[in-house]
């Protein structure tokens, strides 16, 4: 549900309960399998984080210097590569809550509302001492350069400016998750301490990801299951593997017979992953059909760039049409007023 814009308009308050979820992190770095380069970058980020926590909390410097000592990370990479789990694991490592920001909810339709929501989110993170996690942050961070319409431009500049001010003043930990690191506003870029690149998993990692997605003792697997073969054959993200495993389990559970005899077999996993791959291809096609030149490079890895391009292109078109519609209506209204005045005069 969107926040009640009218209510917050009158009270001057943004209701942060609707736009953020505050969670106690459960997943740890043991739950995530990463390519070596990603793991190294993340280890570095983690040691910065624990040192930061040591001086601010245990050494009490956070109380002396409540602002301006923040630590900001950007997790960049294709969707389903583990950015969300790792944000959770970071918060877990320093024993703090994770404040997950739902950007779609944060971005209010009401002009002037979004900057206020951003400020409210930072206030709440400060109060809870939580790690602040902006998921799918490309939309916020790269705004200044992507929107052309003057009204929307002013609004988005205000959002970025508030975000920059809040980042500057905030004393805690902020993590952004983005698909497109290169598109960042330079002013924003300067405030990010470390970028962690989340790469697509290699065959070796994919095999382990298949394994961790099933329960080590409870999940009934048929002896024909071969995760190495699945990992070799399907170069997909961890998120796709997760979805395929759930589909396979549902299919196996739906088969006739006693539950005790049901097993997830290789054919279930094969079908699951093929469905997931097919579904993501359908999505790319419908989004990309106006720009066939980009469909060619829209693989599981390349999709986010192309998809975002297409969405931005669409967004600009919609905005142009909306402006045109407003213009035409204004003109019609003017004609009506003239007609009424003429009628009155006669
Ligand atoms: N590297 C990984 N190791 C283990 N599981 C993963 C990995 N990447 C993704 N997954 C699975 O896919 C799901 C979605 O991943 P998520 O962290 O939301 O990806 P992102 O935030 O990068 O889109 C996770 O909950 C997890 O089950
Ligand atoms: Mg995610």
Keywords:
single chain; 346 residues; alpha/beta; Rossmann fold; Helicase, Ruva Protein, domain 3; six-stranded mixed sheet; 6 strands; 59% helix; disordered N terminus; binds adenosine-5'-diphosphate; binds magnesium ion
Helix content: 55-70%
Q: Give the overall form.
A: flat
Distance between the termini: 52 Å
Count the domains: 2
- With helices defined by DSSP (H or I, 4 residues minimum), what is the helix count? 17
Word description of this protein:
This protein is of the alpha/beta class and 346 residues long. The chain folds into two domains: 193 residues, 3-Layer(aba) Sandwich (Rossmann fold), CATH 3.40.50.300; 86 residues, Helicase, Ruva Protein, domain 3 (Orthogonal Bundle). It is 59% helix and 8% strand. It has 17 helices and six strands. The chain has a six-stranded mixed sheet with strand order 1-3-4-5-2-6, with helices on both faces. Helix 7 runs parallel beside helix 10, helix 12 packs across helix 13 and helix 14 crosses helix 15. The N terminus is likely disordered. The protein binds adenosine-5'-diphosphate and magnesium ion. Magnesium ion binds next to helix 5.
């Amino acid at each position: 549900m969107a926040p009640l814009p009218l209510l917050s308009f009158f009270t001057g308050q943004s209701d942060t309960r609707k736009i953020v979820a505050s969670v106690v992190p459960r997943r740890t770095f043991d739950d995530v399998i990463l390519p070596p380069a990603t793991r190294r970058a993340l280890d570095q980020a983690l040691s910065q984080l624990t040192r930061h926590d040591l001086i601010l909390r245990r050494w009490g410097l956070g109380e002396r210097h409540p602002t301006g000592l923040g630590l900001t990370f950007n997790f960049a990479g294709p969707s389903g590569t583990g950015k969300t789990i790792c944000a959770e694991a970071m918060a877990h490592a320093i024993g703090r809550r994770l404040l997950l920001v739902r950007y779609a909810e944060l971005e209010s339709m009401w002009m002037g509302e979004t900057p206020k929501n951003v400020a409210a989110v930072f206030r709440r993170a400060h109060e809870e001492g939580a790690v602040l996690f902006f998921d799918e942050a490309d939309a916020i961070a790269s705004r200044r350069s992507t929107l052309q319409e003057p009204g929307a431009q002013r609004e988005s500049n205000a959002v970025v400016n508030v975000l920059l001010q809040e980042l500057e003043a905030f004393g805690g930990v902020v993590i952004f998750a983005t698909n497109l690191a290169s598109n960042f506003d330079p002013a924003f870029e300067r405030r990010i301490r470390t970028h962690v690149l989340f790469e697509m998993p290699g065959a070796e990692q994919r095999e382990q990801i298949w394994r961790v997605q099933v329960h080590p003792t409870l999940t009934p697997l048929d002896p024909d299951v071969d995760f190495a073969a699945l990992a070799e054959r399907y170069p997909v993200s961890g998120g796709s593997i997760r979805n395929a495993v759930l589909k396979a389990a549902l299919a196996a559970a739906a088969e006739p017979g006693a539950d005790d005899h049901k097993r997830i077999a290789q054919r279930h996993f094969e079908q699951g992953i093929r469905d997931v791959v097919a579904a993501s291809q359908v999505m790319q096609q419908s989004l990309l059909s106006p720009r066939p030149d980009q469909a060619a490079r829209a693989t599981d890895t390349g999709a986010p760039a192309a998809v975002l391009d297409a969405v931005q292109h669409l967004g600009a078109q919609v905005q142009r049409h909306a402006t045109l519609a407003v213009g035409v209506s204004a003109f019609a209204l003017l004609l009506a007023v003239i007609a009424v005045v003429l009628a009155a005069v006669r």
